[in-house]
From TrEMBL:
GO terms for molecular function: ATP binding. This is IstB-like ATP-binding domain-containing protein. It holds the Pfam family IstB_IS21. SUPFAM superfamilies: P-loop containing nucleoside triphosphate hydrolases. It comes from Candidatus Argoarchaeum ethanivorans. Keywords: ATP-binding, Nucleotide-binding. Residues 1-223 form the IstB-like ATP-binding domain. The keyword Nuclease does not apply. GO terms for biological process: DNA replication. The keyword ATP-binding applies.
Length: 233
């Protein structure tokens, strides 16, 4: 700030600027500086493992995704409505990239959020049971307006993990947005969690305010030359 002040005073002296003009520029620069620092903090704290954005997503290669729908979601109105998003698709179809891109956009726009691999989240919930900090952890997770849970698939789960996860989702219901990526259809969640009454309750709440996007397209991890070789001639 001192450097900015010296620069502005020198500039004012040369141009004969009024004091209120100097003050306005100083306050504007200070505000911009604080906003940038706040944004960088949100980005670092969110723990997104990749530098993916919606601008870099290869919509031209993944025809199973409607770009117009995703860009509409990028307006982030779903967060204000506390709606959930569930991306369902085979591995490599871009589910994580889209979820990360929406989270990144939310962070840029001023929302706080967090990215979790599903297994890591469930392990953290389980570890919190040992020192009885589960309520504190769930409260912290519920304070995020947007939470991404990535790769909810066939995991090895203990009953305590299932209970804690259902508690978390129940607490976030109707208050905050959760984005889940999974290769499981909703019917397969019963095999994952193995507790039909709880899964019924979870899906009832999750799908009540939910945008489900099924990606029926090729894996983006397949080399482009291999994809070309599979094209009909």
């Amino acid at each position: 700030m001192a450097n900015v002040l010296d620069r502005e005073l020198n500039r004012a002296e040369k141009k004969g600027s009024a004091f209120d003009s100097i003050l306005y520029r100083l306050l504007a620069q200070e505000l911009a500086y604080r906003q940038e620092r706040s944004m960088l903090y949100r980005l670092n704290h969110a723990k997104i493992p990749w530098d993916w954005t919606l601008k870099t997503f290869p919509f031209d290669k993944q025809l199973g995704v409607k770009k117009s729908q995703i860009m509409s979601l990028a307006s982030l109105a779903f967060i204000e409505r506390a709606e959930n998003i569930v991306f369902i698709g085979n591995p490599g179809t871009g589910k994580s990239g889209l979820a990360s891109g929406l989270l990144h956009q939310a962070l840029i726009d001023g929302y706080r959020g967090r990215f979790y691999n599903a297994q890591d989240l469930l392990d953290e919930l389980y570890a919190s049971l040992a020192d009885r900090t589960t309520p504190k952890l769930i409260k912290r997770l519920c304070n995020y307006p947007i939470l991404v849970i990535d790769e909810l698939g066939y995991l090895t789960l203990k009953p305590e993990q299932v209970n804690a996860f259902f508690k978390l989702m129940g607490e976030r219901y109707g208050k905050s947005s959760t984005i889940i990526t999974t290769n499981l259809e909703y019917e397969e969640w019963y095999d994952l969690f193995r507790r039909r009454p709880l899964v019924d309750a979870l899906l009832d709440r999750l799908k009540h305010r939910c945008i489900t996007i099924k990606i029926n397209g090729p894996s983006l991890r397949v080399p482009s030359n291999e994809q070309n070789s599979n094209k009909p001639t």
